[in-house]
Amino acid sequence: MPIVYRCKVCGFIIDVFPYVGYNSYGVPTPSELMSQHGGLCPRCGHRLTKPSLDDIIVKPNGMRELLEVIEEARRTMKVGFRRLEPLLEELRRKYSLAPRIPEALPAAQEGLSEAVNAA
Question: Cβ distance 16 to 84 under 8 Å?
Fold first, then answer.
């Protein structure tokens, strides 16, 4: 199960730890991440704090959700994502999962189904 650290205010992904054994250092603590970023969210500048029990969300997920989180991290983390790029390629190969379909596509499909029905 991946561990995703997000800013409480803007939801920015601060770090992703995809699975146990991902690296030899283990899961980073909130204190370590706060120290790495100077105690501030890189996106909104809000002060980072340690999570309370109410802040921690545990939910079942699979490879699709992990890929979605890593894709989001790639779009937003920029430099910090370099270490996740090989994992993203490995997951795509291993599970033959394509990137998520853009939301604009269903609108195009609606137009296609209307054209098929009219024919």
Answer: yes
Q: What is the DSSP letter of 103?
A: T
Supply the DSSP symbol for 37: T
What does the pLDDT read at residue 94? 77
AA identity, residue 24: S
pLDDT for 32-70, tens place per residue?
999 999 999 999 999 999 999 988 888 776 777 888 888
Length of the chain: 119
Percent composition of the chain: helix, strand, coil (DSSP 3-state, to 5) = 45, 10, 45
Domain residue ranges of the chain, discontinuous segments joined by +: 3-118
Task: Tell which residue, 97, 43, 106, 94, has the closest CA to residue 67.
Answer: 97
Q: How far does CA 73 lie from the centroid of its chain?
A: 5
Element (H, E) at 33: helix 30-36
CB atoms within 10 A of CB 97: 15
3-class state of residue 54 by DSSP: helix
